[in-house]
Automatic annotation (TrEMBL):
It comes from the Eukaryota. The chain crosses the membrane at residues 585-606. PROSITE patterns: LRR. SUPFAM superfamilies: L domain-like (SSF52058). This is LRRCT domain-containing protein. It comes from Phoxinus phoxinus (Eurasian minnow). It holds the Pfam family LRR_8. Residues 1-15 form the signal peptide.
């Protein structure tokens, strides 16, 4: 019993000296919350840290803390303080930290902290302070942290921080600063963190940061900066983190990011950047994160990332005008783990674009306008685990495009415009064999065209369903790209066909050999001239109607056909070239002429109808007058 009493004695003693509404512990902490309008009468011999939160204190009176000879840290936050008397902190030179955050301070007296020569931390953030001067910080020779964020400061004198030579952290974010004096920070040679975000800065003067050789963190985001001077950051060789996002930069001077060897994070997003200079980034072996998104860039220099060999995360997304990436853009990023290219305007990718990204694990390509991908694009990405290709314009994918992605475990393919014909069977079969790798298989990995197969799941497609073998078993297709010397293009179909028939020395006679030729030579579906020769198979006994069932997928436009000596000559119109343009123009002229003739004919008929109606009306009037005369003459005779 006595032992228990001895253990509880310190706590009982503390409770006896702890006022109502406060909590005190044996470590010297006192926390008071609620209906308190003045500094509570705590035991000055046992109180080392005082926290007053959500109180009704409005005024800090002179020498409010003089009796607390051991008090080191005082925090009065989220209260109603709007007045600090000139000697409020006098008599307490031992203070190490004063925090007056989230109050209603508009002004505070000059030299109010003049006796706090030992003060290391001063936080005045989230008040309504409109101006400060060097007198407010007079005597704070050992201050290492100053927080003035979330106030209404619009102007700073050039000498306001001149006495804070030991300052390490300075936060001016969330004010109304429009410009900064060139010499504002020149005395802060020990400064490591400078936060200037969420102000109204329009520009920065050259040399503003020249004396901050120890600066590690610089935040300039969410301002209105339209331009920066050349070499602005050249003396910040200790800089680790630089944030310039959310400004109005359209251009950045060449060599702006030279001499930043220790930089680990760079953010440039949410700037209306139009272009970037070829010489922008210096040697950055330590850079690990780069954020370059939500810009107006159409492309980027091929060497933009060349000096970032240790880059881990690259976010180059949300650039709705970015439509081209240079072939060697990612040449020198062997350690890149995540690459985000989503929500851009990319329509095609170079075959070797990702060939050097041997450590890539996450690749986001969703929400672009990609129509297809080269078969070799993922050849060297053996560690790729997550790949998002959803919401593009993909119609086809090579069947072996994912052959080298052995680590792949999450693939997204939904929201594309898949064209379900024989060309899609390769990727369809791969999907059928690897359904567990596709995390959105039931969300729209389905045919978009043709219409009769719309919404049909790719993984259930079959050769028979697409009738891939029907055309092959019936015909053999040959183009002038295969027989350039045997099938000369002439203006006389008969002679050209005859000469090609004589020149041919061998002929496929079985359906099996035709199928093999058809399946292994995809180029035969892309004729290079304006004619194609088709030889009917034996099974049709040279029936001239066989060609009515021929389907030339992705082939030329057939406009005429002729039969000669067992061959069918198909006249075609090339999809490009002057002849195609001429035919298109002729078609438009004929169409317009036809419309004009129809309108003219309709108008002529309308006018003819009016004339006939008038003639009919005149004739009826004449007849009536003749009848009237006859009646009158008859009456006279009677």
């Amino acid at each position: 019993m006595w032992f228990t009493f001895i253990l509880l004695l310190p706590q009982l003693t503390l409770s006896a000296h702890c006022p109502s509404g406060c909590f005190c512990n044996d470590k010297g902490d006192a926390k008071c919350i609620g209906d308190i309008s003045d500094i509570p009468p705590l035991d000055p011999k046992t109180t080392f840290r005082l926290l007053l939160k959500d109180t009704n204190i409005k005024v800090l009176k002179d020498r409010s803390f003089q009796s607390f000879s051991l008090l080191l840290r005082v925090m009065i936050t989220h209260s109603a303080i709007d007045t600090i008397q000139p000697e409020a902190f006098h008599g307490a030179p031992q203070f190490r930290s004063i925090k007056l955050s989230s109050n209603k301070l508009l002004v505070f007296p000059p030299k109010v902290f003049s006796e706090q020569s030992n003060l290391e931390q001063l936080q005045l953030d989230d008040n309504q302070i409109v101006s400060i001067s060097s007198e407010h910080f007079e005597g704070l020779v050992n201050l290492i942290e100053l927080d003035l964020s979330k106030n209404r400061i619009s102007q700073l004198d050039a000498d306001v921080f001149q006495n804070l030579t030991e300052l390490i952290y300075l936060n001016l974010a969330g004010n109304q600063l429009r410009n900064l004096s060139k010499t504002l920070f020149h005395n802060l040679r020990q400064l490591e963190s400078l936060v200037l975000s969420s102000n109204q800065l329009v520009s920065l003067e050259s040399g503003s940061f020249d004396h901050l050789s120890k600066l590690c963190f610089l935040s300039l985001h969410k301002n209105q900066i339209r331009e920066i001077p050349p070499r602005l950051f050249w003396n910040l060789q200790s800089l680790l983190n630089l944030s310039m996002s959310g400004n109005q930069l359209k251009y950045i001077p060449a060599e702006s990011f030279y001499y930043l060897p220790n930089l680990t994070m760079l953010t440039l997003f949410k700037n209306p950047l139009i272009s970037l200079p070829d010489q922008l980034m210096g040697n950055m072996p330590g850079l690990q994160e780069l954020y370059l998104y939500n810009t107006s860039l159409v492309t980027v220099p091929w060497n933009l990332f060349a000096n970032m060999t240790n880059l881990r995360f690259l976010n180059l997304h949300l650039n709705d005008k970015l439509n081209y990436l240079p072939k060697d853009l990612f040449c020198c990023l062997p350690n890149l783990n995540k690459l985000s290219l989503k929500h851009n305007n990319l329509r095609a990718l170079e075959p070797d674009l990702f060939s050097n990204l041997t450590s890539l694990q996450i690749l986001m390509l969703n929400d672009n306008k990609l129509e297809s991908l080269p078969a070799t694009i993922f050849c060297n990405t053996s560690r790729l685990e997550i790949l998002d290709l959803s919401r593009n314009h993909l119609k086809y994918l090579p069947g072996d495009v994912f052959t080298h992605t052995g680590a792949l475990n999450a693939l997204s393919l939904s929201g594309n415009t898949w064209k379900c014909d024989c060309s899609i069977m390769g990727i369809a079969e791969w999907i059928r064999d690897n359904p567990r790798l596709i995390n959105d298989l039931n969300k729209g990995v389905a045919c978009y065209e043709p219409y009769h197969l719309q919404s049909h799941s790719l993984q259930t497609l079959t050769h028979a369903e697409l009738k891939c073998g029907e055309v092959v078993s019936q015909t053999m297709i040959m183009t002038t790209s295969i027989l350039p010397t045997q099938v000369p293009a002439t203006s006389t179909p008969q002679s050209s066909i005859a000469s090609s028939t004589k020149a041919r020395t061998t002929e496929t006679s079985t359906a099996s050999s035709i199928t093999s030729t058809f399946a292994t030579t995809d180029s035969r579906f892309s004729p290079t001239s304006d004619h194609i020769y088709i030889k009917p198979g034996n099974v049709y006994n040279n029936d001239l109607a066989f060609y009515e069932k021929i389907v030339l997928d992705n082939g030329p436009e057939i406009v005429h056909n002729n039969h000669y000596d067992g061959w069918v000559y198909l006249w075609t119109v090339p999809s490009t070239g002057p002849f195609s343009g001429f035919m298109t123009a002729l078609y438009i002229v004929l169409l317009v002429t036809g419309v004009v003739l129809i309108v003219a004919t309709w108008y002529a008929l309308y006018r003819l109808h009016e004339v006939l109606w008038m003639l009919q009306k005149v004739t009826m009037g004449d007849n009536q007058r003749i009848m009237a005369r006859r009646v009158r003459s008859f009456k006279v005779k009677l």
